[in-house]
Design goal:
The chain is an alpha/beta fold. It has one domain: Rossmann fold (3-Layer(aba) Sandwich), CATH 3.40.50.1820. It is built from 15 helices and nine strands. It has a nine-stranded mixed beta sheet, sandwiched between helices. Helix 5 crosses helix 6, helix 9 runs antiparallel to helix 12 and helix 10 crosses helix 11. It starts with 10 loop residues before the first strand and ends with a helix.
Length: about 400
């Protein structure tokens, strides 16, 4: 393969958190003031106190952040650049094959670029994992602005569509993939992917989504499946939608508490990983303690929980294209996992996207890259073969 030279606007980025940050974290965990619990509540009213206490204890006495730093630096080699005056962090796994296709993997909320640590190296170097080198990708894994090691927007008006502009600049002007690239994402990453496909169809070859939005029919076009979907969404919002309401209206207030309390942050994030995964009541059947804590650590050490939640405010005030009844014309693949929080009917998705591939996955939930990495890798490879 031919290696691209490193653009001068890119700088290597190595994760190395100062000891004082870790010492402060441990002191705060030890000082946690636990509220009274309702006996036997479990996860029914939010985060399970017993589980969060056990995870916090492991955070202090069993979790090794330095080992996780090494894992991140090795599996997701870091870089940074400046776009619009702000730092953008991204990982890059260069493709090991005859003609690697550029692929950007976009994480969701409350996730991070760490979500891709299983799939990015294998997508870049399939032969190292027993695959075909002709399936190689040049893989880019950004920390979306307002998450992780990327700078946070400091003015209102920055949502998924504006984020798509930053990612487009990264892929074309910084990395030189102006002849075309594929975008893949779930959750917020799916919203950004939709924005990329809608705004930049001249350089976005295709998009692959593991969470789809759609355009529900009206009148005679409303199918029974779509009617049931609408009812399920009303039920979901009534049962699970409190986080949307507060993050969409008062993210700054909530951010004060979560930015100050590591265990509060832990409870807020891990409860979503429990509720949205295909774990059947056992979160560690999907994720290890180390995986859960490393994702939380990326919010804690960068102090990005407040800006990450602010997207909900922006999307309520000014919905991005993923949430608007507008069509996205680039070729699209949908990997529908059964425990994804939005089970949008295929007919509604096809009204919105030019669906070329639809895969109904047998198992898996919202965090597909970590829950079902092999299935997601296979689906991305299959879809991309049409564009090689």
């Amino acid at each position: 393969m031919t290696r691209r030279p490193i653009p001068r606007m890119m700088r290597p980025f190595t994760i190395r958190v100062e000891d004082r940050v870790l010492d402060d974290l441990h002191a705060r965990i030890r000082r946690t003031r636990w509220p009274a619990a309702i006996a036997g509540a479990g996860w029914s009213t939010g985060a399970d106190f017993d589980y969060v206490k056990a995870l916090a204890a492991y955070w202090l006495d069993g979790y090794d952040w330095r080992a996780q730093e090494q894992l991140l630096n090795e599996r997701l080699p870091g870089w940074e650049t400046t776009i619009g005056g702000s730092r953008v962090h991204f990982a890059r796994c260069q493709g090991q094959g005859p003609r690697p296709v550029p692929l950007v993997l976009l994480h969701g909320w409350p996730g991070s670029f760490f979500e891709m640590y299983k799939i990015a190296p294998e997508l870049a170097d399939p032969a190292a994992y027993g695959g075909d080198p002709r399936d190689a990708f040049d893989v880019v894994v950004p920390s979306l602005p307002g998450h992780g090691f990327s700078d946070s927007p400091d003015t209102v008006g920055f949502g998924a569509d504006q984020c798509a502009g930053v990612i487009h600049t990264l892929m074309t002007d910084v990395l030189g993939f102006d002849q075309g690239f594929i975008a893949q994402g779930g959750d917020r990453g799916a919203f950004v992917s939709a924005g990329l496909g809608h705004q930049y169809s001249n350089s976005v070859t295709a998009i692959h989504l593991n969470m789809a939005t759609g355009i529900v029919g009206s009148g005679d076009e409303l199918t029974e499946e779509e009617r049931q979907f609408q009812q399920s969404q009303v039920s979901f919002l009534a049962r699970e939608g409190g986080y949307i309401a507060i993050q969409g209206t008062r993210p700054q207030t909530l951010g004060v508490g979560l930015n100050d309390s590591p265990v509060g942050l832990l409870a807020w994030i891990v409860e979503k990983w429990y509720a949205w995964s295909d774990c059947n009541g056992d979160i560690e059947s999907c994720f290890t303690k180390d995986e859960l804590l490393t994702n939380v650590m990326l919010y804690w050490i960068t102090q990005t929980i407040r800006p990450s939640m602010h997207y909900y405010y922006e999307h309520r005030a000014n919905p991005p294209v993923a949430m608007r009844p507008e069509r996205v014309e680039v070729p699209t693949a949908i990997a529908m996992f059964p425990r994804e929080v939005m089970q949008v009917p295929r007919r509604a998705v096809e009204r919105k996207y030019q669906v070329r591939q639809w895969t109904a996955m047998p198992v898996g939930g919202h965090f597909a890259a970590m829950e079902q990495p092999d299935a997601l890798i296979a689906d991305i490879r299959t879809f991309a073969r049409a564009f090689r």
